[in-house]
Amino acid sequence: MVKEEVESGRLPAAKDYKDPAPVTLVDAAELGRWSLYRAVIAEFVATLLFLYITMATVIGASRNAGCNGVGLLGIAWAFGGMIFVLVYCTAGISGGHINPAVTFGLFLARKVSLPRALAYMIAQCLGAICGAGLVKGFQRSFYENYGGGANFVHPGYSLGTGLAAEIIGTFVLVYTVFSATDPKRNARDSHVPVLAPLPIGFAVFMVHLATIPITGTGINPARSFGAQVIYNHDWHQHWIFWVGPFLGAAIAAAYHQYVLRAVPFKALTTSFSRSGNLITV
């Protein structure tokens, strides 16, 4: 249907597409560019704002439970809405990661270098600590009374269930990030305007609806770490909110790159075609 409309002239033809080359693992020249440090600052500020708004929403919802509060739905909207806003604002500067799991997944896919990935993760964690610290500074008594927005496996669920919820939830998020930012999709569907931050924010919203009752929804190690550092109680479950998101991100990166995009197969068939065989990409 779309192909017929393109051929008839009712829709513009898709843009030419070429797979971008993998990013160099360590690019020493990158360390001397202002663009890297500007992007790191953007990640710090974005994660700070993300934690401030979302943690304030969580505390307010806990304080006003019932008809007067925003409830689970409002909390999910706060997380998804802030991701939409902040990714939209920072995508052109840093890529709008705002999440070490997203950065890790993109690193595994060779879309960001190792120094940039590490710098982003440090900035995200520091920003999260500062954002949670602002919430505690403005409403200390409520912050302490209502758990500081820290993640934990809720009663009635096992640690295994909590870990699985974090893995699956992060898979949904990182898979959406890869799909929404896929350059081949953007070239093929160039006639269909897609605002990438929208599906990413909506994925965060949907995952929160599903997993808030289980773990409070981490799917972002910086979010969990910042809240936990400032609240500073009961660290024994905190590993779940690092291991789960990183595993989910790794699975999403592998699924998108090796199954959907078939990157190794393309490299193999390209080498065959260059050697004069009949196999082509």
TrEMBL record:
Transmembrane regions: 36-58, 70-97, 117-135, 156-178, 198-219, 239-258
Protein's UniProt name: Uncharacterized protein
Keywords, comma-separated and alphabetical: Membrane, Transmembrane, Transmembrane helix, Transport
Subcellular localization(s) per the UniProt record: Membrane
Topological type in the membrane: Multi-pass membrane protein
Lineage top rank: taxon: Eukaryota
The keyword Transmembrane helix belongs to this UniProt entry's keyword annotation: yes
Keyword Iron-sulfur: no
Assigned protein family: Belongs to the MIP/aquaporin (TC 1.A.8) family.
